[in-house]
Amino acid sequence: MIKIYVCDDQEVHLQAITQIIENRIAFEEISMELVLATTNPSELLERFNSQEINVYFLDIDLSDEQYDGLNLALKIRESDPNGFIIFITSHLEFGMLIFEYKIGALNYIVKTADPELLKSKINSTIDTICERTQNSVNQHEQEIKFASGRGDKYILISDLIALELVGNHKLEIVSKHQVFNCNGSLGQFEDELPNHFIRCRRDMLVNLNEVVTCSVKEEMITMSNGFTISCSRWQINKFKPILEKFKKS
């Protein structure tokens, strides 16, 4: 769920922005939660969790001894580089400062005497965030993460050819474009991957979509990228019916 934080030092504006957001969430049944609406920037910094998907509606001209809106945004960025920051302000001239500070704000909304116009701008911003996060989720669902000493690597599931156990919690990953080692177990990825990833050997998991031939005589499975896997006749005889059933489905 997406978490929303609002910070404005004027209570009347804080309540107006909060009401628009709450109404949008309730009316559209959006998977968002308004976690905090505050006039205190320090309270916001204490409350947010950078591991979640966060949205921050910030007034730029905060009358706080420690933080104005720009400095607050910079402080948020230190912990949450991917959070959505939206500035809401009465000062049109602050727009250039946002660019100069390189905060990466999603939007800059000028407060207006027309409540319907403000509502429209906030609602449009919320819709944009929903669309972007859904696209990100869809993309992430098509990828799988592999962890190694050199950092995490994300590979499209459709690009995976095979996963082989090569040591104690060490795997060799064969994809259409690269071969690399990572940490983990076959059991772990067997649970995470779709059901067309099947063991042809105890130490080898293959993508049935990428199997080209399965020869009992040669005791060999050949994958689409030319990668070959040696198996015993018993293993081939057990694997081949699974492959044939999959290809017919």
From TrEMBL:
Annotated ranges, domain HTH LytTR-type: 144-245
- Give the GO molecular function terms: DNA binding; phosphorelay response regulator activity
Name the domain of life this protein comes from. Bacteria
PROSITE patterns found in the cross-reference section: HTH_LYTTR (PS50930), RESPONSE_REGULATORY (PS50110)
Note whether Phosphoprotein occurs among the keywords.
yes
Q: Which UniProt keywords apply?
A: Activator, Cytoplasm, DNA-binding, Phosphoprotein, Two-component regulatory system
Summarize the protein's role.
Answer: Required for high-level post-exponential phase expression of a series of secreted proteins.
Under what name is this protein listed? DNA-binding response regulator
Q: Which organism is it from?
A: Xylocopilactobacillus apis
